[in-house]
Amino acid sequence: MIGPYEAPTVRLPGAAGLPDGVPIEPALYMYVPRHDRNCFVDKLDFVSAPGIEDGAHPHMIVTNLAIMRFAADGVLEVETLMPGATREEVRDNTAFALRFRAELVPFRPPTAEQLRVLRTDIDPQSLRELELYSGDERLARIESLALLEPAHDRLYATLAQLRERGAHADYGAARA
To answer: What is the set of domains in the chain, with CATH numbers?
Structure first.
C-alpha cells in the first residue's frame, strides 16, 4: 500500500501467489536485487506467506551482497559473500542480527554453460538488466523491449481496427 495503513491512498495487489505456492514448493529460491534495510527489516508490517514453522521450505536467498540459507535451527545465515562485499556491508544493510557461517563458502561464478542457458533460454531479452536502470532510462528500456514482443503488432492492429470501427459507427453500433 501507499499511504497510512489505516487509510492508504493506493492499495497494491499484495502477495499474489505466495500464500498458495510457498507451502507446496519443495525448495524456494529467492532473489533480492538490492540488499538493504527496506527489504531485510527488523519488524514485519504483515506476513505474505507461511514461514518455516508453517511448512515453508526456503532454500536460498541470493542478493547483490550475499547468498544466505536457513540453518537447521531456522536462523538465516550468510553462506557466501558476493565479490567485493564485506561482512560489515551485509550487516549494515540488514536491519536484524544476521548470522554468518563459521566457514564462508567461496563465491563460484556461473559457468559458461549456465550463462548460455540464462542468456538464450531463460532471459533472451535481458529483462534481468532492468534492475540496472531507473526512471526515464528504465522506462525507455521497457518500451524498447515491448516493441520486440510478437503481441505488439497484434495489439496495434486491434487498436487500429477499433479506431476505424469507431470512426464509422455511432457508440451504440460499436458496442453491438
So the answer is: 1-107 (3.40.1080.10), 110-176 (no CATH)
Give the position of cell 518500451: 143
- List own/partner pairs for 11-20 with CB under 8 A and 24 or more apart: 14/48, 15/48, 15/49, 18/48, 18/49, 19/48, 19/49, 19/50
Which is nearest to 81 in space by CA: 93, 92, 65? Answer: 65
Give one word for 143, left, alpha or beta, with left for phi > 0 and alpha for psi -120 to 50.
alpha
Q: Could you identify the residue written with the cell 457508440?
A: 171
Q: 56-103, pLDDT tens digit by residue?
A: 777 899 999 999 998 888 888 999 999 999 999 999 999 999 999 999
CA dist list (Å): 53 to 4, 26, 73, 99: 30, 15, 11, 19
Q: What is the pLDDT of residues 122-144, one digit of tens each?
A: 888 888 888 878 888 888 888 88
